Amino acid sequence: MFARKADDSLASFAKRIDEIVAKNSDKNARGTVVMLAGKDEVKPKLEAMAKDKKIENVPLTISDDGEGGPAAYSINKDVAITVVVYDKNKKVTETFAFEKLDAKSQDTAIAAFCKVLGVDPPKADAGKEEKKDDSKKKEPD
Hints:
- By secondary structure, this protein is α/β, with parallel strands linked by helices.
- The chain contains 4 helices and 5 strands, in the order βαβαβββαα.
- The chain is globular, with a radius of gyration of 17 Å.
């Protein structure tokens, strides 16, 4: 994934990818976040993101090529997030360009990632639904 802004939505998405990579290490699942920004500008944000979200399986990196990114990828300079999904043969299966990483765009990219792994995508709100269900339970009178 190539990103231009290190914010909460990127942190959330990186954490979701991190969890999928951890659960699918037997399938050689991999993910990388590449920031397209100046090193001094985003390095402290990435370090805090990794620590706060406990991102351990997805490297949070900064492109040496700056805001343009690696020339071979021809990344649109007007797009905030570019997600490239590869299969096990390193063939690109999907490419997404998002203006923002809202829940819908995250789910779309995660579904494509899980598809190449041959697994079902995790439910983003599974934990929240369980909590809601627990709150509806009543104690016997």
